[in-house]
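To whoever is on call:

I kicked off a structure prediction for a single chain this morning and the downstream step that reads the tokens threw a length-mismatch warning. I double-checked the sequence; it's 83 residues and nothing unusual in it as far as I can see. Pasting both halves so you can look.
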Amino acid sequence: MGTTVIPPATAAAISAGDAGLLSIVAIATLILLLVVRESVSARATGRREDPRLQFLSRLLTAPVLALLAVFATIVVVKIWEIL
């Protein structure tokens, strides 16, 4: 029963190297969710209101808000790096 311990310096280096990729993935996911949410919302409030699509539109609000918080954090960190 062996465990692998990663030294803090190595973990920080891995995190710093992957931060750019993770921020790109988070922003792409945010854009995709915003497009899907908007199209579902437009379809749900058409001529025939579909309660399932309205529910899906409201359901997509939570991940969008979470990813907006991640995006705001990314912006703050990038500004902090510049200063």
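Update from on-call: the warning came from a stale cache, not from the record. Cleared it. Sanity check on the structure: The CA atoms of residues 1 and 83 lie 46 Å apart.
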